[in-house]
Amino acid sequence: MNSLKKIGLLGAGMMGSEIALCFASAGFEVVMKEKELQLAEKGKDRLTKVLDKAIEKGRFSAEQRDAALDRIFPAENYDLLSDADLVIEAVFEDTELKKSILSEVDKVCKPGCIITTNTSSIPITLLSTAVEEKRREQFLGIHFFAPAFIMKLVEVVPSLETSRETVDYVMDACRAIGKDPVYVKDTAGFVVNRMLFSMFAEAVRLVDEGVASCEDIDKACKLGLGHPVGPLALMDMADLGMALDIGNLLKNEHGDRFRFGDSLKQRVYAGHLGKKSGKGWYDYNK
User: Fold this and answer.
1) R_g of the chain, CA atoms, integer Å
2) Residue 253 Cα distances to 75, 145, 199, 258, angstroms
3) Is the pLDDT of residue 121 over 90?
4) Is the model's pLDDT at 271 over the cut of 70?
């Protein structure tokens, strides 16, 4: 990847900051942009804890930590992305928000810069309309999985107009940072989330029908299917509101197998969104 030197990262939340770390730890310069510089700096500060854990487990050295952090530059100005070779948008899973940000970065990026979106469910061709038509050959989806610094898989998803050269370039970029990319056609939810959310929906149906308790549903998946985390606990970790939004998108695209039952909707309406709110399928305040 001799032509890849500078990365632009849009969003410094948990996902965005860890994607930035993936590239920085592999030797690339990363500009990590947020709407406010303080938020970008907070995202970088969060990475110190991530790397300290890696050091404790013997996966990283203090010297590697410091070098990786030195390659990440917090920013609030789009102009600092003008010479980036690859830009990754990694903001909240909201179509209009993503399109607005992608449109802004398209205005400042140099010709030849590849612009990508880290969406878990939104069709890539829909998001590609945010950039000028002349750049759509150089636009695609690049879906990392949480925690991005640890998980090896990346789904690479072209839009209707993405060139094969762009796909190959991004897949090589993923390999350059130690990831294992898979090529996926543009369909809402791609591969992993189509399977995962159909399981989420079935787990909610089991709760609604009183087939088993939340604890026993999760235990069955862990002990019977070998999953490290049960589906209900995993939803709590992610955010129940986000799960409902993505489920509704998948239901609209693919049908009722993604329809969530009342027990999830009621929790979202009550503000019981999972770990971050203290309650979800489980009560974390006990």
Assistant:
1) 19
2) 36, 22, 17, 9
3) no
4) yes
Q: With residue 141 as reference, give the H or E element that holds it.
A: strand 139-144
Residue 120 appears among annotated catalytic residues: yes
Task: Please give the average per-residue pLDDT across 235-257, as a whole number.
Answer: 93
Active-site option among 18, 155, 159, 272:
155
254 is catalytic: no
Record the pTM: 0.90
Q: What are the pLDDT digits (tens) for 22-68?
A: 999 999 999 999 999 999 999 999 999 999 988 998 888 899 999 99
Q: 38, 133 in Cβ contact below 8 A?
A: no
Is 193 labeled as catalytic in the residue annotation?
Answer: yes
β-strand 180-183 against 86-89: which pairing, if any? unpaired
Which pLDDT belongs to residue 12? 95
Task: Give the long-range contacts of residues 162-165, CB within 8 A, separation 24 or more.
Answer: 162/124, 162/128, 162/136, 162/137, 162/138, 163/137, 163/138
Question: End-to-end distance of the chain based on CA atoms, in angstroms?
Answer: 50
Which position among 17, 120, 121, 128 bears the catalytic label? 120
Contacts of 88 (CB under 8 A, 6+ apart): 7, 8, 9, 10, 16, 19, 116, 117, 118, 142
Which of these, 229, 232, 198, 196, lies nearest to 212 by C-alpha position? 232
Q: Is 277 a catalytic residue?
A: no
Least Cα distance to 250 among 207, 201, 204 occurs for: 201
